[in-house]
Amino acid sequence: MYSDMADEKSKSSIKEQINANLKRVYEEALQEEVPDRFKDLLAQLKAKEGGK
Amino acid sequence: MMASSKTAPETEIRDPREELPEHLGALRAFALSLTRNGASADDLVQDTIVKAWSNIDKFEKGTNLRAWLFTILRNTFYSDRRKRKREVADPDGVHAASLFEKPAHDGRLAMNDFVRAFDQLSPEHREVLTLVGASGFSYEEAAGMMSVAVGTVKSRANRARARLAEMLGLEEGEDIMSGSDRNSLAVMGRSGVAAA
Question: Is the ipTM of this complex over 0.90?
Answer without folding.
Answer: no
